[in-house]
Structure formats: structure tokens, C-alpha cells
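Case study B.
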Amino acid sequence: MRRREFLRLAGAMTGVLLMPGMVRAKLSESPVGRNRLRPPGAVPEELFAGKCIRCGRCVEVCPYRCVTMLDIRAGLHAGTPLVLVTEIPCYLCMKCVDVCPTGSLQRVDQSGTRMGLAVVNRFQCSAWIGTILCRTCYDKCPFPERAIRLEQLRPVIVESACTGCGICTHTCPVTNPDGSKAVNIEPLQAHRRVLG
Amino acid sequence: MKRPANTGVLTAAAPLKKTGKRYRRIRLAVLTGAFLLIAVNPILNYFLHSHFLQGWYQSFSVGKLWFVSPLEGFESLLLTKSVYLPAIIGMIIPVGIALAMGRVFCSWICPVSLLLELFDGMRRAVTRKTRLRNRLLVAKKVLWFTLLAELLVSMVLGAPIFVFLSPPGLIGRELMMAVFFRSLAIEGLLLVLIVALEFLTRRFFCRSFCPLGGLLAFLGIKRKLRVHVQSESCTACGRCAGVCPMGLQPSLDEGLSAYCWNCGDCVDCCRHDALTFRWS
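Model:
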């Protein structure tokens, strides 16, 4: 009887390991994506799930309430912090970095932070398609003239200086039906995958 | 007070002591205090922006003094194969306590313990029974299996599961979610399951299925503080075995084993002063 139960348990565990690849991929899929970013100073995404102990102190300390916590629907990444910049962007106060007990968020300069990279969709941006002279993102950027410049009154992101804080995304007046904006923060892995 | 009829002879030798609840009272006070500590800090953090008290029992901070739960911190270091000094320093005090006193976190601090104590109290009040029966017994050694399985599965998946599903952490997280996001996370249903399992056996989860308890028990194998029996005054009445939430028999020296969590319930219930905490 005990042996039978053990075999049953072992069978169940192999079942989990041999689960259809799709289900497993879904379970371990990273929640980071367009406008969904880790707090500043985060270690590379491959390490994050293993390093973070889900203590929630970054969520508690954030004065802007921009750091939210994922629940079990995020699979293996459940409990990890995420910044949804279309809701509340990160104002780079760096308080979450100071309280992280595991080094999942590591100390960086405000200007050295790379949460992601802003990308202007030139087919949607009002300034680029020429409907109005909008320069909201340029006005709100914490690093004006460094991270966002105006070229012929149209916003251009300077990739070497953009921190990916998402203030431009949050403030952009153009909202698509899927919730994205005319300027979006793309996670850095995507950027690296394209440009090598 | 109802007295067992067959202890008449012994009563003559040593008068029956009325059982006190010394340790139990202190323990419930400590449990309540520990719960209030994590219940109050989301409120302080959210409404007053005071970050003096922070976190819950995965990582807790009082000012600059940080605590990191040993299992969670250990897994984080193990999975990323890196050393991060603040995490290790944060684990010193909890590990030290576990080395000296065993699983006292579980019985004296853990918010799940408080929840289950309250549930026990309610059950006693409803059923009017002083002893709660254990209907399903699992070998105590399963605790070590749980600990190993947790570490292995975490290493296979590359992400620690227990850090997320740990019931003591879950209570803290639910409190924080309630204050910060005005919602509760679904994984809190696990707590309901743990409470439901109490109908089968007292502390069903804590006994053999809590990986954190497993690690603390492992650290506490050579602990200093234990429940000792004085065999000359023990009458083998079996009260302590009925009272022990972990299903141990302190009168048979099981208070010395790694599975004892030093709650002191047996010491309280003994009428012959045969059980005592001793530091050795």
C-alpha cells in the first residue's frame, strides 16, 4: 500500500515535469512586457524569480504606490513586484532599492536606472502625425533634453539616457484600445533581442 | 475540578497541583503581539508613510535591523548561486534562535499558529471538549521529506515556491494587499485549507508539511532549550500527550526530539511538575 502510494506520488510528479510544454511555458512566463516593468535596479529577469523572496517590502515602501504585487495567476513569478507604468509610473525615488533584503533590486543612480526603454510610435504620436503640436512627454520627462529631445517639434527618445521610468507613457494623451500609448516602455530584453 | 479516581495513592504522596496556564498565557500574548506587529505595519506604511516597521515574516525590519526568514533567504542564495551579505546578516538572529531554542518561531510567533490557536479555542467552545482528537496521523519524519522536496523542486523550477506559498508569509501578504490594494490575493485560500485540515488533525500542516518548520526543526536538533521529564514524579497519566498540539508524548522523552516546538503546553498541563523547560 505504501509502495503503491509512493508510486502514485512519483507518477504525479513526473506528470508535472512532462506537462505539455505550453502549460509549463505559461507557468514560468515572465510577467515583464510592454509597460509592465520591474522596479529600478532589478537584477536580470532570468535571475529575478529565484532571487526575490516575495517579502513585499518594496511595495510597502513605495510612496507613489506604483510598485504592485503579482498574485498566483503569474505562475512562478507570483509575489514579485511589478510597475504598471500606464497606471502609476516610477518617479525614481529609489526607496524600494534601499529596502530590498535580497539584492534583487540593486542600488543604482537615478540616471543610471534602466527599467526599460521608451519607444515612440511615430504612426500614433500626435506630434509625429501632425494633428497637434503635443509635447507632453517632453515636458514631463525627468531628464528633459537628455532623455527626450524635440526634433522639429517632434519627440525623439535618446536611448543612452532614457531610464524607462514611464512618466512619458503615463502622461501621453493618446490611448489605444489595448491600453497602450503612443509612447510605450519596452522591456530591455526585447531591445537587446532586436539589437543584439 | 474532576479528579481521576485511580490516582488516589499518588495524591497522598504528592498533592495534585491545579494546572496553571503560565506558559500558555505568555505564549498567546506573544503570538498576539507578533500578529499585531505585522497587522499594524501596512497601516503605518500606507497611511503615515512611516517605514520604521516593515514587511512580515519573510523579511521584517525594525528600523535598520533587518530579519530575513532562513528558508527564504537560503533558497534565494542557493538558486542564484550568489552571496548577498545583507540577506545573510538578516538570517543570523532567526538562525541563532532556531539553533538555541528550536522551532520556537512556529509556536510563539507564527501568525498561522495564532490563527490555529483561535480555531482550537472556537472548537473547544463549540464541542465542549477539552481534548481535540487527531484523526489522521502522518509519520513525523515526513517533515524532512517536505524540506528536501521543497529545496529540490525549487531548484528544478528555478524559482522558490515556498517563499510565495508560505502560510506565515501569506497572512502578512493578505494584510498588506487588503490595506494597499483593497483586495485579497487568491492564494489566501491556502490558509482556509490549512484551517480545514485542523478538523482531521491538530496542526496537520505544521507537523509534517511546513518546509520552514522543517528547516527550523533541523536547525534545532541540537538545541539547548528542551522539555525534560523527571521520571520519578511522572505518573504516566497521559495528559501531556493529549494536550500536545504536535502529537508527541512528552512523558516518553519526545520533548527532546527535533519535532518538539517548545510551546510549553505540556509543561502547563502536568499536575506533578514532572515536565520542565531546561537549558542545557
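DSSP finds nine helices and seven strands in chain A. The remaining cases will be described in the next quarterly update.
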